[in-house]
Amino acid sequence: GASTPLVEVNGIEVIYNHVILVLKGVSLQVPPRAIVALLGGNGAGKTTTLRAISNLLKGERGEVTKGTITLAGERIENLSPSDLVQRGVVQVMEGRHCFAHLTIEENLLTGSYTRSDKGEIAANLDKVYTYFPRLKTRRTSQAAYTSGGEQQMCAIGRALMANPRMVLLDEPSMGLAPQIVDEVFHIVKDLNAKEQVTFLLAEQNTNMALRYADYGYIMESGRIVMDGKADDLASNEDVKEFYLGVG
Ligand code: ATP
Which of 15, 17, 46 maximizes ligand 1 atoms within 8 Å of its Cβ, making it the mutation to test the pocket? Predict the structure, then answer.
């Protein structure tokens, strides 16, 4: 029904290397077409939460040992990362991860590996260039020679090539100048409004994230300690004192 979250995480625990309990019962909901921010400092567990949803924990020797994760009401814990891409769930990892020796356009095309329709791929590429005109300008440049902001845009653009309905965005502001962060978030907001892409974004930059998100969750030591509408969190005295100085 209308109230079914697109993604729902319910009481998950995550353990790394069979011993280190990192998520201690995390629950959150991402409504369809929302932008939800997952906030908190270094090591709070934001990346681990995103990896749990997109099933990228295995490579890190991590596993979900308790709780459930659903996509539009269906359990997804046992789907592989590429099954999840097929179902429209794509993660943009922290640190951008463009292929340094490929051009921007070649990087973008690697994002359509689940697609085979050439017309559709071309249309997706056009769409990415509409939202990221900078990438169009730089499309024949090797990623290694583009700016940090352009590489972040390239990483998001590559995710969009899979035609996702849900993008998990890990720390998009990392290492970028405030003006560039604004530009990236502005495009995220635009994609959300015009393409109905749902976003769950992990951010240490509380200020910026709350300016663009609809709803926020704050994590500390593997737990959600506070959540609320972005405007309410931004004006909350505790949030101001403990988090708004950050980033
Ligand atoms: P950051 O912004 O630094 O990425 P975060 O909030 O995303 O922080 P996580 O990366 O999820 O936090 O890390 C949560 C905890 O899990 C930290 O204590 C971290 O040291 C630990 N951790 C993360 N990855 C692993 C791993 N592969 N093996 C063991 N412990 C890990």
Answer: 46
Q: Is 45 in the pocket of ligand 1 (CB under 6 A)?
A: yes
What's CA 108's distance to the chain center, in Å?
17
Query: How is residue 244 annotated by DSSP?
Result: T
CB 243 within 8 A of CB 44: no
Compute, in degrees rounded to 10, the torsion defined by CA atoms 121, 127, 129, 133.
180
Bridge partners (DSSP) of residue 71 are 7, 74
For residue 114, how far is its CA from the centre of ligand 1 (angstroms)? 29
- Cα–Cα nearest to 123, from 137, 138, 134, 108: 108
Position 12 scores a pLDDT of 98
Q: Is the CB of 47 under 6 A from ligand 1?
A: yes
How much is the pTM? 0.94
CB of 95 closer than 6 A to ligand 1?
no
The whole-number pLDDT of residue 11 equals 98
User: Helix 148-160 vs helix 118-131: angle between axes, to the nearest 10 degrees?
Assistant: 140
Query: What separation in Å is there between the alpha carbon of 53 and the centre of ligand 1?
Result: 15
242 lines ligand 1 (CB under 6 A): no
Mean pLDDT, each 10-residue run in order, the chain (247 residues): 87 96 98 97 96 93 96 95 93 85 96 83 96 97 94 95 96 92 95 97 94 97 97 92 67
pLDDT in the model for residue 238: 87
Residue nearest to atom 8 of ligand 1 (CA): 43
